[in-house]
Fold each of these.
Amino acid sequence: MGLAVAADVVPPSFERLQVVKIIAGLVGILALAYLAGHRRIQQLERKLLLSEVVAAGFGFVLVGLVASLPAVGILSDAVLYEIRPILPIGLGWIGFVVGYRFEASALQGLSRSAVRVAALAIAAPFVLIVGAALILLSRTTGLSGASFLRDALLLGTAGSMAARGSADLLRLRGADDAAVERTRLVLQLEELAAVLGVLLIGAYFRPPEATVAWQLPGTAWLFITVGMGVAVGLVVYGIVSVARVEREFIVLLLGSICFTAGTASYLRLSPVAVCFIAGAILANLPGRWKEPARLALGHLERPVYLVFLAIAGALWQVRAWQGWTLMVVFFVARVAGRWLAQRVRPLVVIEGEAASAPWELPVAPMGALSIAVVVTAQDLYFGPSIPWIVTAVIGGTMLTEIVAQATLRAAAGFAP
């Protein structure tokens, strides 16, 4: 089930007791997200070198999954229909936060070897995942070539990047602070490549004609996506420039993200890509408000992200065996791609720049942006294969995190 809704769908109705139960359940999820975002919880995660995906995120995916059960009914299909704007808002929030952390000036200091290593780390898993997914999807579905090509590209885009926090795990392998920082900058390039992939997929693989009012060429949608992100970024820049206190920043940023994500979803564009562009423009323009804006985003980032994962868990169809099969293929292809990139890595490092090249993890964890890439499909497309790719990435994210943690800690003899 996706949140893309056709025009002829009849809105559901609820009994009074159902409404009370649903409201109480939603308030409970919001309260849990707020508590899980407390700074002490985040400090504990950093101390144990755990990512938010495995520490708190997976719990909220399970909360959403349980809340969607018919016996519970808090996040049933009918409820998700009524609160469907939450999904694009969550996607837009993730895209905006990633864009706001994108430091164009810092990337200019990367060596050519670091850029080559990043390109290799992106290309190798992307090619293997897309190739393996195409073979599997072509054999298990009756979809057209464009449909399973779109799904394979989404899987490849989600698997071609690593979580930003995975750079901290390099300390278990003996990396110093400088190496960790270089790796973190390279991970920004991976995030940029992933957003570019989502942007291109959203522009050239449009939803069915019956669900969209405008019919334009793919290149036109590409320009509309970029133009919308740039225009909104400049408008938000002008708005936040007049804010004076942190509370004003929170209200203005949240309102701007909601407006941008909602407009993008209405036009059947990726909220992740549009909000990323807006956030990147806002972060790289001068202003006295940049630090208060960063603090405002930091206060709301974790609760919004966890609520988004709960919605993703409610949309997760775990009973389809095709999704679990695709998860195994996705995981194996991604690990093989990262391993291949690590083996070929010495060939792309320029002589004399070996010390400035970033470190690399054999099994790199995935993060929120990877999940957002495939959940974007829930907002834009219909089809039986959409829940399968969501299962592949959510399950693959958890499995990758567990394997990465176990491998690194066993090799380093790490004890919290």
Amino acid sequence: MSILGLDIGTTKVAGVLLNAKENRIIKALSLNSGAGISTEKEWEKIQDPGIILDKIQSILKELKKHTPEPIESIGISSQMHGYLYVDKTGKAVSPLYTWQDSRGAVLLESGQTAREIIREKTGHSIFAGYALCTHYYNTLQGLVPREAEKIVSIGTYLGMVLCGSAKATIDPSEAASFGLYDITQGEFFLDSINTLWGNSDFLPERVPFYHSMGRDRDGIPVFQSLGDNQASFYGTMRERVESVLLNLGTGGQVSLFMQNLPGTLKGLEVRPYPEGNLIVGSTLAGGKSFDLLVDFFNQVLTFFGASVSKKEMFRMIDQQDFTNPQTPLKVKPFFNGTRENPALRGSIENIDLENLTPYNLLYGFAEAMVKELKSLLTANNLESRVSLERVVGSGNGIRQNPLVCRLIEKIFQTKLIISDLQEEAACGAAFYSLEGVKRTN
């Protein structure tokens, strides 16, 4: 029995073909999305949805060639919080505004930001980068395309294109990621949305988990896209739901499953998940901060007329036998801000006459990434409520970085289990779609 999962990430797109009975990857493919659109505005982070779809569909076409048996289902994992506008025919009429776009925190002529106005008018807080915050900025600035009918996630858009459908839908995982969503009721705060826009007609239709969007041109059922955080958890933690999941990709996340909603959580979100909720803490830098440092080293080498490939740099870093520095650097990894304060920036402290070395910088950056994730649990006293006998790691920022792995075990004081499935989000989407088939039949 073959199933297929597709994942649209921030910097890459991926797909997996799985043997569901054997829990085995038959074929996995990934490509750099190359969809970023350069702009003069530092806070603007947008992508070309046409490029994304061309690449993910080429992956889908190739994967279909690698199984002689019928494919049972197609699942989709989608980068969260971002959105694009579609017209009444379901065609994209805008770029994809990603979760990294911080226009919602840009000062307007009124002296306030879009997120501040939303909080003032509705009493609800929303992060910059969340769809409804970005959309409100665009509304205030007259940037909404005239032909726009709905806002949809990039995952939903892929599903619409695969099924040849103009119907815009959204499940709880992505609806919550748009902001202004009531977790307890499973619905948007429609009164607040009507206050801000006068109506809620631009929202996609809310559908439950395991919703079938239709069938693709080969007759394969396609299921509503799942948020990439939930999809990664679904793929990685199917038999380890009681553990904590750490994911380091472009950003970083710590996630744990709870059936019942906890009380107030500082710096954490409650996200809808089948049969319960995920408690999630997110960092904006994550694995990207380590990339930032390697790029810096590369620029230094170039400045002095030398050249080492990025791949070779990472290989040399992996060969280092890192030990705890005697006088460590103190790195604050807020190079891309935080959810609460997008304008916050990182720093390197405790520099003396001897410790400003590549070795100490590498150690300090890796340690800072892990400590930031651990602090989200500590600040909410969640260590006493969940088992930390082991943590599960996923994402290339963990899988390809032995130093980070060692620091996770040291800082969390536990054993790290690295997911045995690569492309966790795509795998999770595939398994999720198979469950959707079972529930449909």
Amino acid sequence: DPNVEASAWDLDAWVGAYVADASSDANVEKFVQAVDSAILEQIPEIAENARLSEELHASTKSQWRSFLTVLERENPDLLLPPQAVDIAVSMARRGMDVGILLKVYRVAADATWEFLVGVADAVPDDGPERADVLKFLWGRASRWISDSIDRLVLTYFTEREAVFEGAFARRNETVQSLLRGDSIPVDTAAKDLGHPIRAQQTCLVLWFNDAAADGSSTDLEAIAQAIAREVTAPRPLTVAPGSRELWVWLATRQAPDMAGLPAIVERYGARAAIGGPSPGLAGFRTSHREAVDAQRLVLRAGTGSAVTTYADVELACLMSEQPEAAQQLIERELGKLAEPDPALDIVRATLSHYLRNGSNIVLTASELFVHRNTVRYRLDQAEELVGHPLTERRTEMDVALRLVTAGLGR
């Protein structure tokens, strides 16, 4: 650790030790937290969008790691990581003003300066001059930020030009108009989009987690086509609001059977959130809103399976807008059963099935593939942890269990 080394350091030796220390996962997270908390506090357009917030974290982390890898070089070249490009592309595709992108980097520059001042202040007395350390670090960092802005603004405008050109632009504008609720005749919308609007509309949001570094909207298109084939739907309507995210509308005569969806999504290492099927223009909008709400819940909770259906998390979505009320409901209705102990997951799952099956132990045992006595034993455990008979406040317990399953309140 360059901040506690007893021997005297010259600047080059200190920088080498600092890079080694700052590159640890824990110290990288400290930098990301310092910078991103400032950005989210000052730029609501990013803070209010769970997906953009996630892309911001990935960008900051990857850029800081890239910066550290070249910090010791005499003439460091900018190694702009793909995660930094991703957020610029996402902002362009969402129609966000370039001024927001510039503000992100202005706030990041201020936060980085404050962070590096702290680094310099922590240099020990027998180390290099603190002013020299700060001058060196900020000189490299300010150049890095300036070069990043130049490249990413170019990326932004290149993407915006592509978005607003030709058929791609017309399709995106029509979709955005429909989602805004603009008055567009259904037949006109269907013709412009090449999509049967009058049919049942099921919207999916597909995306890659940051761990899937190689995932792109092209890969998501392949997933969308595979899903359409699985449910015997025509070619889906797709719009890419970000470089690693895709909105998909399936048009079917009846509500599609999504049983095969998890296998497809997991095979590609992606995630999916699904809105409910509903016909016509109203269904086009409603299913999209539900899919986006389900995705927001998944990203906020940081948990969940590869596929999340809005119908399964509707209550949690509604309650997630009031996190304090949700937490109070969980604590009041579940007591010790709400504790974040993995061993309690099976007890919670059993109680959840039991409540939804109208207190039918036989049906619950059949669904869980266990003996009825096993169900009774788990229900006894649940009753003891909850602190009151399971016949009381059944609806409230069911809601609380759904919230915990969705990852809220933990």
Amino acid sequence: MEPAPAPFAISPDQPVPAEFDLLCENCGYSLVGLMSDRCPECGQPFDPAQLPLARVPWLYRKRLGKLSAHLQTTRLIILHPRVFARELCRPVRICASDAHAFRLRTIRITAIALIVPFMAGIYLQMPTGLPRGVWPALALVCALGWIATCVWLRLATDLPTFIWRGLPGKSDDLSPLHHYAAAPLALLLIPALLATAGVFLPDHHVFNASGQLAPVAWLAIALLLLPVAVLVWTIPLVIMKTATGCSPRRVWGLAGYLPLHWLIMTVLIVLAVSAIAFWVIMR
């Protein structure tokens, strides 16, 4: 078995190691040194003169596995955003569809992370002896909530391409960066797991006598979400600054635009969900 790539130990200033040089995009077989233009493993044709793929683990998911590739890419972006941005600015192939697939996977994981604590809270707060038909309805509500969360996250992380322009000769190639900038959202799994565990604590720690969240629970939620929110806000700024070399004024412009963008998308989703709920109730 070939050793897995180790992207975190590689500097974009170094030559491309053989294991990253050229791999079959169909099966992940190494094409280094081959004299033909066809993969000997699966028969897929390739261009020996094409640029290598960027050293982003997600692009090697057929070789690493989707879970491992997603975790490694998320870790690279969160811990080394400047290294990641410089890597995508080298003369390498950057696939926009792969970047988009990474963002969608991150969004699905995040939506699950956000909906699970609410499902646990609903389960504990529901009285016993309910008719059987109630549970399928609750399952449908949770499924619709997950869909609405996915739509909200897609809108919130889908930034206009013009924001990423600025790198000479590669303004269009910067568009995948905003897909990868959504990586910190995956960290919501950690507070979601802690919140789900907290729901099962004795009621007086989480819920007050009226069944509402206690103040200490709200404080714990805020403290858990704050680091993720900071990373979701700052990672795009670091990536854009590194990739474009833009002025501090432009970085601060994006810093001010991001919260406004998120607020607008949140209002749109709340209005849409409210309109749908009103239509269902009035039928």
